[in-house]
Structures are given as structure tokens and as C-alpha cells.
Amino acid sequence: MSVDPRESQPNPQGSRIDPYVGSYAARAAGMVASEVRALFAVASRPEVVSLAGGMPNISALPLDALGELAQQVVVEQGRTALQYGSAQGDPVLRQQICEVMALEEIDASPDDVIVTVGSQQALDLITKVFVDPGDVVLTEGPTYVTAINTFAAYQARIEHVEMDDDGVVPEALEERLAGLAREGARVKFFYTVPTFNNPAGVTLSPERRRRVLEICERFNLLVVEDNPYGLLRYEGDPVRPLRADSARNVIYLGSFSKTLSPGFRIGWALAPSAVRDKLVLAAESAMLSHSNFNQAIVGRYLATQPWPEQIKEFNEMYRARRDAMLASLEALMPPGCSWTRPSGGFFVWATLPEGLNAKAMLPRAVNERVAYVPGTGFYYGGGGQRNMRLSFCYPSPEQIREGVRRLVGVLESEIELRNTFGGVPASTGRGGEAPAPDLP
Amino acid sequence: MTTAGQGQKEDRTVADLNRVLVLAGGLSPEHEVSVRSGRRVADALRRLEVEVQICDVGPELLGLLTEDPPQVVFPVLHGAAGEDGSIREVLELAGVPYVGARPDACRAAYAKPTAKALVAERGITVPRGVALPKALFHDLGAPAVLERVVALLGLPLFVKPAQGGSAFGAAAVTEAAELPAALVGCFAYSDTALIEQQVTGTEIAVGVVDLGDGPVALPAVEIVPDGGVYDYAARYTAGRTEFFSPARLDDETARAAAETAVTVHRALRLRDVSRTDLIVDADGRVHFLEVNVSPGMTDTSTLPLAVEAAGMDFAVLCRELAHRALQRG
After folding, report:
1. Which among A130, A176, A167 has a CA at the least distance from the CA of A151?
2. Residue A269 pairs with which residues in a beta bridge?
3. Which residue of B has its CA nearest to A48?
């Protein structure tokens, strides 16, 4: 076989590989391959200590019991569990969800609960029913990366509000809302992860909770409270969710992904009744109905298993991991670095010395067999270049210690590089880059 | 002259090829790209009823190669280990035939400054540039070194890691003030940076295959990324780049590009398959940028496009390459 290039005739028509390239909606413009995502793919290799992903550690789950429950569901209620269900979710499970929320002093009716595919689907449905292109969504800065991607997919204008160690700063929220009101912007809701924030690890103080609710009520602004980590507390007193003090103004999102298993994909939204009706209709068009099978297993788990004790066991495990991370950071991090000290949840948010860029140094880190999520992923349109999210939920305490040791080596090398070349300019990227959820 | 043993190997027909191990993944930033390339090669071979196993590089690899060796290994690893020759050293140690260049040739091709020097000796035009290690900037002071670099090479410049692909750590620099940030980005991937005069023109990739009758160039593929920069997003997001295969070149330039790629393949003693990246400037002169011993085989990679433009079947080509390795033994 031989090929002579002179035999090939130039083709004036180029190929873009994807024949539908001209057909995509404008909202798909940001859905592109990224270097950072490519690096996360390497980070899932076993040689790499991944402090990047937020995958719950389910090693303590009673798999035998869950296996029996699954069998019972098939044998005893297979004809309904393997049939279509409703878009709002199983009424029995919704009642049980209310009992779970009661642990955090939320008083709710099962009628106002809608089961969703993880709380992520709730976020998608809420954005779908509220946001037109160009509408403003306020979020903390930094905020949950996949919320950014959801809002961006609906072409929202995403505005961040400053946070500190006590959560979002009420004065900054008020000022931003006043500014947006002056410019006549259509602000649709304030999205917040007030308890053990992802990625910042901080918790909104009780005093600020009152202020935030008061400000949002004054501006007639809906609050979307995302609380997947609230029951994963390792020290201190529980803090009342925003929804516990405002049934009218708050849509509350909960999830079994961290307290049971993300594999069932069961979360929920608790919404004022008019909003709930819209969400149910939106859910119906999105996925017709939920998996009755998964709902039935989770329902039986809640009805028959000592799940509060299971959560306590998870909390013991996560506390040891958090302590290992905080102790390692304290012992090893170079001067000029700071980090948050979470009382629960999965994440520590680190701030690096001036002139360092966590995104730029990620390839070197992966080369040294440690991974984290650069802070830029948690901001829309720039910011967070000196930050990194360090996750302690999945690796063992030994792996965490080794991971921090490797990370510190990379940081020292970066500090030397900064001293040689000066600082790296701030990133102006779109944000929203984080590992796929299956990354350890 | 062939020995009797070699003669027996050469008698093995394509039908004898029935078990291939595709190596894909690896511990480099190009892991994901390699996985996609590997899957495509594996699917192609399976379509021709070749039994294929895909394996990543890990502790189990050597055991697999020695205890249950495949007939042929098809390395589709990109980046370090995959392209710097080290995995191929392992394949030599295990005594398993494999597709592609030998370790020493890979080492030379993977080190971009070395490859550049070797092909320049053959009269191929290469961008003027310097290869500078990170430590040198630290020891001599970055501002003074960068001032000399700009004085010598002028602007615009192109900065890229001395090893690696997929445009990781690469950046165009139009002003001297952008150089430090470009170098910091580059040093995240490699301890040595290649700083070159930026050549502007038509960007093309020329695949070379050798199925036993000597290396032959495939039709050049012209690359026209949206926004003009062939970065990671432009490479691996379908639709972000327009490809012309064959490239829109006149016969003489197309011939020069093909000859350049074949010369590179020969000069670096490559084997079976390679892809050379070139730029044709406004005067029609062909400039060598770099060569890949394990070209990308993804849906958006240029080599499969070139294969198609040549009227060849990608699956048949993969089988031919594996068969050739089997014959070599």
C-alpha cells in the first residue's frame, strides 16, 4: 500500500468533525474540553492522592442489609417498585424526608416535598422555572461548581457575593442587591450553601442567618438553600437551616447522597406550594417519573435501619480525616498560606501567598501525584486564582498526610518560581471546572 | 539477509493476528486523550475480529506481558513514559512485539530541542529558538535572561514545554511582559522551556506510515481553529476547529510538506507511524514544529482524518501496523 499526496485532490470543504456544530443552542457554547478536566482524569489514578473530588466515603455502609432490602423490594413490592411512579416522588418517602428534616428543626409537609435526582436536579429545575437568559442569580463567592454550570447552562448572569469565615457577608449582599435594583436587573434568587459550604468549608453564623433572611425578604428575593452536609457535623452546636425560620421565602434542597449513598441519586426540594407545583410539572417533562425502585429501597432503609447511628459513624470517620488534614496543614504549609477550619462537611478552602496561581500549578501537582481543585472553578468569570479546595472525605488519614506533604513540596517549588518570574496574572476563565463526580 | 527464525515470523499472515494489547491511559496530562485514542484503535481492531484487550500502565502490566503475553502490543500512550521510550524499553524487556518506534528513537523525538536539532541537520527549516531550563532563570535572574531572549529572537514568540503534547503549557507571546507568565505556565509541565520565534502561516499535520515499503506521507491535514489558537479546547472539542484534508496547498508545497515529514521520520529513525506538525509560511516555506511517535487517534485527531483522505480504512491500517509488528517479532 502506498499513498502519494499528489494523488489527493484538495477538498475546499472543511470538516468540523461534528456535523451539528451549527445547530447547538447558545447555552452549549461553554461546554468545551478543558485542560483542567484532563488533569482530573489523571488524578483518578491510584498513584495520585486526590484531594480534589467530593466523593462520599461509603466504606462503612451496611451492604448486606442494603442487599436484603433491595431483594425485599423486588419480592414484596416489585409490581409497584418496577413500574412508573410520580414526578413528585413516593408519598411514603416524602413523609420520611420530612422526618429527616425535622432533625434540623424544619417543620414541613410531605405535600411540599418533591423528590429529585440528587439535589442537583432540584437546582436544574429551579433554574429552569425561574431564569430567563440574562436574569441575575446571586451566589456566594466561591460557590458550588456544578451550580455555576447549571446557572450558566440557562444563560444566567451569575453574580458572586463576598464571604468570610462566618459565611456570606450580609452587608455585601445588601449592597449588591441595592446596586442591582438601581440598574433594574431581574434578580431571581440567592443560591447559598450556608452550612459547611462547598467549597469554602465555612458556616453562616446564626446572627448572619437572621440578617440574610431579613435582607432577602426586604428585596422580595427567593433564597435557594442547599444543605447536603448539614447532618455531617464533627464539632459544635447545630445551626438552624434558613428554611427553619422562613417557610415562605426559602426553597430548601436536601440529599441522601452524603448521609446514605450517592448511588441512589435521591435528593429533594422543599418549596412553597406554588413553586412546588411548577417544579413537579418541570420534573415531569424532564424525566416523567422517578425510579420507584430506588425510592422504595431508601424508604425501607429509613424505616428499618438505624440510620441516625450510621450518620454518627460517618461523622466519626470524617472527623478523623478532617483532623488529619488540619494537623498536616498546620505542621507543613509554608508561611503566607491560610485555610478554613470546617466544623463539618467535606472541604477545606486554602488561600495561597500573593502571586501564586493554583490553576497554573495543578499540572506540577498532578506530576507529583497529588490533586486538588483550583479555586477558579468556583467563581464565574474570574477569581479564586490564589485558592484551592482540599477535600478530606475520601482518602484515608495516612493518604491525606502524604497528599499534604506532596502538595507542600509543589507549593515551595511554586514560591521559588514566583520569586524568579514574579506573580502570574489573575485568571479570567469562565470557571466551573471540577472533577467528574466519580473521582475519588 | 534474514535468519530462519525471522523468515518464519515473516510468513505470519494477517489472519494469524488474533490477540492485541492496546496500551492507553498512562500517568500524564494526556491520560484522557490517550484513553480515547486507545478505545478508537481497539474498536477498529475488534471490527476486524481481532481480539483486543485495553490496559493502562500500572503494576499489573509486566505480569500481564510475561505471564500471558499478547501477540502484539499497540501503545497508544501520549506524553511522558508513552512517548519518551520508557514503556517501549519495558516492552523490549518483556520481549513482546509492539507497534511503533524503538526506545532510543522515541527519546530523541520526544525531546523537542533534540528532535529539532536532528532534523535541522537534514536541511529542514526549524523556528529559531532557545531551550532553557527553569534552574537557569533562577541562577542567572529571569529579567536579564528574558531581555536577551527577546533581543535575540524578537517578538512574537511561542513558548512550549520541551516535552509533551496536546498544547499543554504552550502559549503565544506577543509582548515581552507576557513572557514570565507563559514560562510559569510552561514550567508546570516541564523543567525546560522551548522559546521560539512564532511562525505564522498555515498549520498542517502530516502523518507518515510505513507498512513495509518504506515511510509514506499521508495527505496533509490543514488545521484552522476558531479564534486562531489550536489549544486544548480547540483540539478536543468537536466543532471548534475546521480541518481540511487534504490541506489547501498547491502541489509543490504539498510535496514539500510530505517530503519533510518523511525526512523527519527517517532522520529520527522512527518506525511504523508518526505525525509531524508543520507550518507553511506566506512564502510557501515549510517549518518543522515537532513530531509525535504516538499520534493522537481520537475522533478529533488529524491522523485518522489523513487516513480517510488517503482512501484508506483506519481499522485496516491499525491491523496492518499490528501485523507488521507481529512479523518483526
Report:
1. A130
2. A114, A253
3. B27
Q: Domains in chain A, start-ordered, CATH in brackets? A: 26-60+309-421 (3.90.1150.10), 82-304 (3.40.640.10)
Minimal CA separation from B224 to chain A, in Å: 9
Whether the ipTM is more than 0.90: the answer is: no
Residues B188, A422: C-beta atoms closer than 8 Å: no
Does A363 sit within 8 Å of B243, measured CB to CB?
A: no
CB-based contact A123:A224 (threshold 8 Å)? yes
B235 touches chain A (CB under 8 A): yes
For A362-400, the pLDDT digits (tens) are: 989 998 999 999 999 999 988 999 999 999 999 999 999
DSSP letter assigned to residue B29 = T
* Cβ separation B243–A12 shorter than 8 A: no
Per-residue pLDDT reduced to its tens digit, A195-220? 999 999 999 999 999 999 999 999 99
Interface mutation target, options B36, B184, B314, chain A, most CBs of A under 10 Å: B184
For cell 411514603, name the residue: A92
Q: Which of residues 103-132 of A touch B (CB under 8 A)?
A: none
Q: Which stretches of chain B are assigned E, i.e. beta strand?
A: 19-23, 51-55, 72-75, 129-133, 157-161, 171-173, 192-197, 202-209, 216-217, 221-225, 241-244, 273-280, 286-292
Residues of B catalogued as catalytic: 30, 166, 236, 275, 277, 290, 292, 296
3-state helix, strand, coil in chain B (%, to 5): 45, 20, 35
pTM value is 0.90
Burial (CB count <10 Å: 0-12, 13-18, 19+), residue A197: buried
Contact call for residues B172 and B150 (beta carbons, < 8 A): no
Burial of A424 (0-12, 13-18, 19+ CB in 10 A): buried
Are B219 and A39 in contact (CB < 8 Å)? no
